[in-house]
Amino acid sequence: MKSNPGKGIKKVNTASKNAVSWAMLFNSPEGHIFLAGSCIMIFIITWFLFGWSWSPENYQRINALVGTRLVMGRPGSIYFGNVIGVRPLDILWINMLFDTAAVLILYPLFVLTTRELLHIKFFKKPILRTFEASRKHHDAIQKYGAIGLFAFVLFPLWGTGPVVGSAIGILMGFSSWFIMGIVLTAAYLAVIIMAFFVTKLHIWLLSMSFYAPVTVIIIIVVVTICFHIKQWVDRKG
Question: How many independent structural domains does the chain possess?
């Protein structure tokens, strides 16, 4: 059986290139951003493991809210939080925490991947999808500069948000900390505005019928499933 030394060399070169890339990452602004995001993720994981002992009365509700955020996104999680009786402040900080962690962890990886300094196979396709989404909106936002980026994150379209906004910031040539400031400020404000209006909607629906909020949850679930199916079909096509 013949050996293929070239294949081994390629693997070694890729591994050493990734090692150099990670070293560059942790010595750069993007590295500091990534470390901050990692700390937030450690906090979230720790809560999942030990939160029941700290706050048993809120543990199940908050975990349900977190799960809804992962599946249905920000609007669904805010509305579901109101339905199951999660405290308004908990709804706010959990959604803000998720937006922060997503941006702080994914943004540095975007930077390294687009500069071809990092090669992670399973991460390549999500990166390409995110940048495809960012390029679709880049031209329209570019002419308005930072204000346009802020507005895009503040009033996101379906399937977009702070992560796509940070990718657009890269395309616009803004510095890392400037992108973080714009994107996260807009994301936090978006959470507050959305929580305010969704809470008002929930109260209004309850005044109409006890079953109205449940009906809205079902509609959100169906729309979310249809959206993900469409995305899957588009990727396969």
Answer: 1
